[in-house]
Task: inverse folding
């Protein structure tokens, strides 16, 4: 427990209230049936409540807070399954511009993210949306301009973005450019994926002209991409922490009500063990997720980020599988909420690096430290 | 007679291979199926109505060749001499998307139940139609408050002269939307112990008072229904077997339901696709990829040899409850292992809705629940092992 915890708990209470009021699953069910699948008025509220600018500097419209507070908001969003494009816009897109952009770019692009008037995303990977595959987008210089072509797969929230940070190869090395989502040559192919609470798209680039002001001035783009994978990974781990907590609650409530053989099903030892395992997963993921959030920029950040993302990815999926088992047949009806968590867990496990990928990062990190 | 699987016994060898005769049957069957049907995934992907229409057409052809009910006694339209043919059929059917759709239940246990307990009239009427491939059945077992605890069912059938009057609700009734008959469990004595007051009824679904609705499920959309019975009057001749002995009959037959469709064979077929996907991307040199694929493959093959053991015991006249439970858990593990392999190897690509990976995820999700939960199978096994009552 640190000195910030009172503040964090206040933030948690207000975030939970806002999401309980505005995004109960009855509302979520309506939002996922809309064309864009997000609730813009809730996004505006998130901006008003200061969630979007929480970790952005005051000079660009943020409040200069820490990941300790952002963690609270991300957990509450995961708990509520809230369809908000916050990780894509704030953590990835704004994160990229803050890490790799110059003053002009930051002043031009970040205030809109902080006040919610713009949504952005990051298209950082190749066709399969994985960090461990080659990029499938490239830039070339043609008649004095920079031209982008190729594809970036499984990009979150691209369909509602006004701009995106794209990782593309420039010769042999990666580079990062900002692309206007409505620029000629950008085609956003919406995808229908298992997790109905979030939307992904393949983004195709067909000779998109990139103004020189939109090239992010970083010497080492790969380093920035790696850092964005870590940050987005931890953000997803925190979303999973909130989801896990809620999965424990609703599963325990259900097995405490449902009767078979003249008893509550929660009184059977097999079901008790399932519930106890859910709690172990939830508590462990929480400790790891919060440790990672507090470790950002510290000496053990790389290590904690990999632990949090890989652990939450595997346990959230396993916990929701067990939870559906506890619900029995109703677990796969639309009427009950548990399936939303099961599917959100599946996508979270894969976005911004699978557990396998993050475990490999962890091993490399530990080995490099031993070598030092 | 050479059979594919020999019982593991003192001095007796275990053969994992099918006999030449059985292999040539498999080859002939495959040739027939390849000519009649698109490959598994395409058949499974057909719109529901088209899948059903093609199934009805296909099953009649299967019946005409004597391949619908080969394991039944000859007098009821079977060939009776080839128990392993039914296993081969089961595997090849699911490899082609289970083109019998709901009719596999007729063959596996509804027909056998009628053979076991039916009157001459019921046998004459129903068995002929089943073995000709002309009729779809649904199974009216589970209720909102009777899932794992099936014997707690409350749908009632009250005798009124020469009729019974049925009231109640059934859920998870696959094929109810297209079925002509429902194999219904209903309570005929509410005073007796819960297992001892249940009877079986063969109810025409066109009877007034039978209403079928859809369950809005997130998996296998359109596959699950609920059926409401409101003052449904059926003649007493619709009852199968003696009054109040339905549960005993069903318990015997459920061992067949536990074998069910050859899930492991379909899952293994899908795993081949995952392996191909990896191969196309040059991933098959990666030891962790090979390990993941092999792990799932072993889970499928473990389920396969276990079901062969069940089948072998059954052909020798035993009632292999215990092996059937072991097999069922292995089949669930196979479904899950293949689904996990797809996620692990394909990443987000495995999350595209209505893709084959998504379909496998649905099978894996329902596998541990449908037809008796995984935990219930373990309870049954533990009871046998530990000799405790539970």
Result:
């Amino acid at each position: 427990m640190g000195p910030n915890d009172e503040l964090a708990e206040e933030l948690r209470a207000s975030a939970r209230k806002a999401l309980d009021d505005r995004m109960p699953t009855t509302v979520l069910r309506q939002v996922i049936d809309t064309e864009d699948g997000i609730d813009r008025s809730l996004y505006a509220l998130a901006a008003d409540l200061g969630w979007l600018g929480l970790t952005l500097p005051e000079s660009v419209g943020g409040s200069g807070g820490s990941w300790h507070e952002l963690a609270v908001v991300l957990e509450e969003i995961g708990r509520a399954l809230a369809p908000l494009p916050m990780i894509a816009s704030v953590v990835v897109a704004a994160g990229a511009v803050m890490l790799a952009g110059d003053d002009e770019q930051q002043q031009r692009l970040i205030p809109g993210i902080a006040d919610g008037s713009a949504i952005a995303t990051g298209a950082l990977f190749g066709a399969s949306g994985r960090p461990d595959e080659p990029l499938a987008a490239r830039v070339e210089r043609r008649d004095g301009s920079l031209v982008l072509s190729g594809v970036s797969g499984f990009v979150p929230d691209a369909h509602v973005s006004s701009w995106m940070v794209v990782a593309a190869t420039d010769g042999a090395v990666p580079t990062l450019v900002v692309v206007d989502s409505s620029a000629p040559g950008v085609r956003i192919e919406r995808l229908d994926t298992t997790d109905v609470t979030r939307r992904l798209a393949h983004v195709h680039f067909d000779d998109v002209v990139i103004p020189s002001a939109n090239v992010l001035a970083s010497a080492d783009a790969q380093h920035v991409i790696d850092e964005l994978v870590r940050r987005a990974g931890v953000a997803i781990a925190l979303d999973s922490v909130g989801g896990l907590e809620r999965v424990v609650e609703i599963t325990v409530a259900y097995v405490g009500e449902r009767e078979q053989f003249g008893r509550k099903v929660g009184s059977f030892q097999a079901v008790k063990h399932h519930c106890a395992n859910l709690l172990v997963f939830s508590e462990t993921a929480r400790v790891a997720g919060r440790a990672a959030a507090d470790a950002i920029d510290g000496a053990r950040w790389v290590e904690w980020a990999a632990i949090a993302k890989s652990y939450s990815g595997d346990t959230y999926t396993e916990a929701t599988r067990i939870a559906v088992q506890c619900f029995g047949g109703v677990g796969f009806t639309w009427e009950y909420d548990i399936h939303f968590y099961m599917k959100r867990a599946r996508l979270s496990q894969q976005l911004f690096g699978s557990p396998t990928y993050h475990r490999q990062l962890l091993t490399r990190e530990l080995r490099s430290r031993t070598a030092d | 007679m050479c059979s594919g699987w020999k019982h593991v016994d003192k001095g007796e060898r275990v053969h994992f291979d099918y006999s030449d005769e059985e292999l040539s049957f498999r080859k002939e069957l495959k040739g027939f199926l390849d000519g009649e049907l698109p490959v598994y995934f395409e058949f499974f992907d057909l719109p529901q109505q088209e899948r059903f229409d093609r199934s009805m057409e296909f099953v009649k052809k299967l019946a005409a060749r004597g391949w619908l009910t080969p394991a039944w006694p000859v007098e009821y339209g079977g060939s009776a001499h080839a128990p392993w043919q039914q296993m081969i059929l089961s595997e090849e059917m699911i490899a082609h998307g289970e083109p019998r759709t709901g009719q596999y239940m007729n063959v596996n246990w509804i027909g056998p139940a009628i053979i076991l307990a039916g009157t001459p009239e019921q046998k004459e009427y129903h068995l002929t139609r089943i073995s000709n491939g002309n009729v779809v059945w649904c199974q009216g077992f589970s209720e909102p408050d009777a899932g794992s605890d099936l014997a707690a069912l409350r749908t009632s059938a009250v005798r009124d002269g020469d009729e019974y009057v049925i009231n109640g609700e059934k859920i998870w009734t696959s094929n109810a939307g297209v079925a002509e008959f429902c194999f219904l469990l209903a309570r005929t004595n509410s005073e007796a112990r819960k297992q001892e007051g249940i009877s079986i009824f063969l109810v025409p679904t066109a009877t007034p008072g039978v209403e079928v609705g859809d369950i809005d499920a997130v998996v296998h959309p359109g596959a699950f229904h609920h059926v409401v019975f409101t003052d449904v009057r059926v003649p007493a001749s619709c009852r199968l077997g003696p009054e109040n002995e339905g549960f005993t009959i069903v318990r015997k037959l459920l061992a067949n339901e536990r074998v069910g469709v050859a899930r492991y064979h379909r899952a293994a077929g899908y795993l081949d696709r995952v392996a191909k996907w990896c191969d196309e991307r040059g991933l098959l040199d990666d030891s962790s990829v090979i390990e993941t694929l092999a792990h799932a493959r072993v889970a499928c093959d473990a389920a396969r040899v276990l079901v062969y053991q069940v089948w072998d015991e059954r052909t020798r006249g035993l009632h292999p409850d215990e092996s059937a439970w072991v097999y069922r858990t292995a089949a669930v593990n196979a479904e899950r292992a293949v689904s996990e392999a797809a996620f692990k190897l394909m990443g987000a690509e495995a999350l595209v809705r209505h893709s084959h990976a998504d379909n496998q995820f649905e099978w894996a999700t329902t596998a541990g629940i449908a037809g008796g939960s995984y935990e219930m199978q373990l309870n049954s096994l533990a009871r046998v092992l530990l000799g405790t009552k539970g």
In short: The CA atoms of residues 263 and 331 of chain B lie 7 Å apart. The first strand of chain B starts at residue 137 and ends at 140. The interface with chain A takes residues 142, 145-149, 152, 171-172, 215-219, 288, 336, 343-344, 346-354, 358, 361, 365-366, 368-370, 373-375, 378-379 of chain B (CB under 8 Å). Chain B has three domains: 20-135, 138-244, 262-386.
